[in-house]
Amino acid sequence: MTWAGFAQQLINxxxxxxxYALVAIGYTMxxxxxxxxxxxxxxxxxxxxxxxxxxxxxxxxxxxxxxxAALAITGLLGALLERGAYRPLRRAPRLSLLISAIGASFxxxxxxxxxxxxxxxxxxxxxxxxxxxxxxxxxxPRLSLLIPGITLILLAALFVLxxxxxxxxxxxxxxxxxxxxxxxxxxxxxxxxxxxxxxxILAGVGGLLWAMKYPQxxxxxxxxxxxxxxxxxxxxxIGNLAGAVVGGLVLGILEVLLVAWFPAWSGxxxxxxxxxxIIVLLASxxxxxxxxxxxxxx
Length: 298
Known about the structure:
Helix 9 (223-236) crosses helix 10 and helix 10 (241-261) packs across helix 11. The protein has 12 helices and 4 strands; from the N terminus they run H-H-H-H-E-E-E-H-H-H-H-E-H-H-H-H. The protein has one domain: ABC transporter involved in vitamin B12 uptake, BtuC. It is mainly alpha-helical. It has a two-stranded antiparallel sheet with strand order 1-4. A two-stranded antiparallel sheet has the order 2-3.
């Protein structure tokens, strides 16, 4: 592979890894608060993508309005999921919460299958996100630059929220000790709902970007990206925001390079993610960035 070819694949890998990172951040936020792996989280990609189609194609809304509405509804759905599926089981054994999360994932997928059908729908990508350009012989889709940029902006905003606001201070306290946080007069339920809203919105952003990058939407759109985002979160050190981003980028880059270097193995690209997870956990069970204390996680 030439240097130009390597640079081309590196751009593609960073773009894919940024999508994984967006979704992985949501996994990390929920885990940092509830110690819960929210397996329904990946399905919010699908929800946001379908909502984007409705806004753009059915209601002919301008793309900023359609996307903001899709993200708002996705965030609201995340809060409703926490209220209905997780809050009643908060003091139950962890296994009950895990089963509830898996059940919620199946529910979302099958509701979409029943009401929207199993046939993939094309996603009407707005012109501002379409197109590409060439630089030094490299073919660069516009989305390949926008996706990492959007990821960095959202991650920076999240860090500001968590590190420099009273709400962020309360979230860090909640991650450290629920009971002490409640004794301070902080509304624990409201903070947990906020965590689900933010995580769901990030997944929704990932879903809209994914649908524009791979413009077909079906009820199971979020399954594989959701699993890979979970792998990315674990690779980076689940519970660590920066680790989620690092894990996503590492996974995306290695996945793309694997296909570029070994085209005959392209059918195994999904299996590669799980093999990589096993190798990293055997070498470092706490992920690439190691174990992080509660205050560092959020």
